[in-house]
# Entry
Amino acid sequence: MSSALDPHIPECKTFSPALRNTAPTAKVAVIGAGWYGCHIAEELRSDGHDVHVFESQPDVFGGASGHTQNRLHLGYHYARSAVTRRQASEGYRYFKKAYPTLSRAVTDNIYAVPRDDSLLDPETYLQVMRASQLPIELVDSTAFGLAPSTTAFRVTEELLCTQSAKRLFGASLRPHLRLGTPAESVEEAHGILRLNGEPFDVAVDCTWGAWEAGGQGMWPDLHFEPCVTFVYESQLHEFALTLVDGAFFSVYPFEDGLHTLTSVTHTPLGRCRSHDEARRTIARQNTDSLERTRRAMEKDVARYWPSFLDNFRHVDAFFSVKTKMRSVSDARVVSVRRSGSRISVFAGKVNTIFTAADLVRQELHTAVGRNQWASL
# Structure
């Protein structure tokens, strides 16, 4: 299923409840216990499948899902990708219904458009969001200490409660979790897949291409970005600021009075061909290199928000690896591919877990049906 706008981007889709119980019961290995792995495991378990979740870290959300800005996207980030806005908006509604306690509002969630530097002028940005029926309110940028050259909007996007999600999935999936157990060896023959020597009907890779044996060969159009995120203390607990659309920055609530600072220009520490290469890049970082990166970020922020360092104090940093797909429209959508008994998920944002689960169901239905015929 590909978009008419971009052959690599799936259309937004309606979900297919009929598929929930039509596939024969299968023994399924889910690789990765982040947002996607945990949600998909729960969905497949509710369908009656025998689900086993392999996670190399000692706890769920030990990778990128626990080391990112906790933003529940509604679409404001993606003025240049209609398909991403549609998927984000649709997924947002499903997320709020399925997980009502795992996100919360931020009183002053501000998106600002620098009039002279953005790829879109503020009027066009506002027009795009209103046409997408996304709630948006023009506010006085100077009231928040922003430079007069920016146009500011208050939006309704919410904050993900990641620690609550960790507790929820850690408890509900406990009997199915194999924590501290990486999926290392994989073999497939005669419709049977062996993972670490154990037979499974299907393996679902939810590592965004990081599990090289299971998924990366299906995604030659991916690249990996080693990233650094800086953490700040602040009394502005109910404030978030994101500049769009271009090589800007975002300051977003994190947890316990902390905020994160990320930058399109400085957060990526490189562009790598593999997840391992990205991890090696992270390992080479030292105190001096991180200090230079942080100072460069803060300089960029001060250009549009002069009072930033009056309200925020740097306290920490963390690393993650982001997986990106080439897209001229800056799309961040979800897609699923299958090779034999291996299904691989490339994810957009957290709220596209529902689209991903539906696509996985379809591929699992096909894979299990094929294997049944092969065994006759």
The first strand starts at residue 27 and ends at 31. The radius of gyration is 21 Å.
